[in-house]
Amino acid sequence: MSVEPSQVRTPEPLSRPYGVASYLICMKGILIREALRFLHQRERFISSLVRPLVWLFIFAAGFRQVLGVSIVPPYRTYVLYEVYITPGLAGMILLFSGMQSSLSMVYDREMGNMRTLLISPFPRWYLLVSKLLAGVAVSLAQVYVFLGIAWFWGVKPPPFGYIAVLPALLLAGLMLGSLGMLLSSMIKQLENFAGVMNFVIFPMYFASSALYPLWRIQEASPLLYRICQANPFTYAVELIRFAFYGQLHLTSLLVVTGCTIVFLTAAVIAYDPSRGLMSRKPAAGGAS
Amino acid sequence: MEHIHPVPGRSEAAAIAVQGVSHTYGRHPALKDVSFSVPPGSIAMLLGLNGAGKTTLFSLISRLFGIQKGSISIFSHDIAREPREALRRIGIVFQSRTLDLDLSVKQNLAYHAALHGLSGARTRQRIEAVLHTVEMETRLKDKVRSLSGGQMRRIEIARALLHEPRLLLLDEPTVGLDIQSRASIVAFIRRLVADKGISVLWATHLIDEVDVRDHGIMLREGEVTAAGPLEAVLTHTGSHTVEDAFNKLCRKTVQGSGHER
After folding, report:
1. Is residue B247 one of the residues assigned to a domain?
2. Which of chain A's residues have a Cβ under 8 Å away from the Cβ of B119?
3. B228 domain residue, yes or no
4. What is the pLDDT of residues B72-127, one digit of tens each?
5. Which of A74, A101, A133, B241 has a CA positioned 20 to 30 A from the CA of residue B255?
6. What does the alpha-carbon distance between residue B261 and residue B251 come to, in Å, rounded to a whole number?
């Protein structure tokens, strides 16, 4: 049965206006959901650890004799190859995690879960930043579990390094997560995500200082060296590497900060309903 | 377009007022100069075939898409200028399921409460209240995956009601459900309107969900062909049943012949 307007009772009061506490509640809710989703996907957690551990246990051991690493800052002495690539592997976790987040955003958008987030009354930028922070928080936990295992493998930076590296990991995670978020706004369908793997993750990872020092690359190919220098992931890795030894690599800090701002701003614009890409394509399931 | 009653988008008290809204995907027009209003405390059925523009309209009302042309107000709050005030007054049930299957009912509802800034105590209170309303109190800790299609829909409705909205948007909420579940959801929504006095905009192409005392907005190929109380629409179009009016106003016409198909 329908109700005539004259019969309408007074609606229940609306939820109270939004203050600072409400903003924090919103962010906490997004963080908890991200953590719960992660905990429910154990295979995702395991695979996120197995990938860098395979590199550490097998690749690094195999290439230790082949790839000699000379004394380069921040190292003050010769280091084992395992020690050299550990910051790059921490970056690898953040890189894959950032892209995984973008994959889940595309999936959520296709399956409709993303709409639940985007129809919240909080500003769109705030929702996206909260989702980004939640994704980075989860990936930081993965990095520290990896570092714990690496410690038993003989990769032992100074104890202070584990604390000093946290802001570097956070910033690098934000940059890579922002990039993932930007990419997710451009990807129309889940199937297109394989392209991200081929055109973003692998080139970013291999054309960086994660696996070999830049001087080695310069010797091999000046062009590749310049590509590595233009790759933001190189700076993320160097920021993490220096932070492990309690040092600040200023250039890396500036580049990573700048890239984070650019990627995040572009992602927020892309997801902005009035300016972005969202309304230029039909909703999932077609424009019915 | 025929606006039988009331004048579209003029009343400040309108639960929703849509004025001159057009939307295109690239060069394909999805909505063309759409205008209508929904009085507070009423059920308005948005009727149209698949592809008529119902979901696009819902995406614009819920601000998933930006408005390219025209304006939409929720209880006098313009969705583009005052999105926060407009969105906090809306509860939405989307056509596709948007619950997280791996999380429990409680976790899904708590997430939605957080997205509306509800405190812990208020969240617990509201979850209890809405689950009671949809008669699903016993499934609080169950994973959503373990629920039936009809039960999931009830939880989605409960979620839409969690922040006490004044306008409920339902985008084909009974699609994919069996007859019994559909009837149950329809009866439940109507009871909800009677009890709580909230307004409902309900997109559907299933005529048996429509009551002749509802308001109706007829959509055909992105255009509103009639809007107003359905009884008036029936009279105006010389139709005996809602289905008859639906066939006249919502079915696609064969170009050049004037015939419907």
Report:
1. no
2. 21, 25
3. no
4. 999 999 999 999 889 999 999 988 888 888 899 999 999 999 999 998 899 999 99
5. B241
6. 6
Whether the upstream peptide bond of residue B29 has omega within 30° of 0, thus cis, is: no
Q: Does B88 touch chain A (CB under 8 A)?
A: yes
The interface predicted TM-score of the complex, written ipTM, equals 0.81
**Tokens (6 digits) for A257:** 């900060």
* Contact status of B42 with chain A (Cβ, < 8 Å): yes
Instruction: Taking each helix axis as running N to C, give the angle between helix A20-40 and helix A42-54, from 0 to 180 degrees, rounded to the nearest 10.
Output: 70
Strand, helix or coil for residue A249: coil
Chain A: residue whose CA lies nearest to B230:
A2
State the nearest Cα–Cα gap between A94 and chain B, in angstroms.
24
Residue B149's domain comprises: 98-164
pLDDT digits (tens, 9 = 90+) for A119-133: 899 998 899 899 899
Taking CB atoms and an 8 Å limit, are A287 and B67 in contact across chains?
A: no
Residue B195 lies in a domain: no
DSSP secondary structure string, B113-125? HHHTT--HHHHHH
- Lateral strand order in the sheet of B215-220: B2-3, B223-229, B215-220, B43-47, B199-204, B167-171, B90-93
The residue of chain A nearest to residue B186, with distances taken between CA atoms, is A1
Interchain pair A26, B80: CB under 8 A:
no
Residue B159 forms part of a structural domain: yes
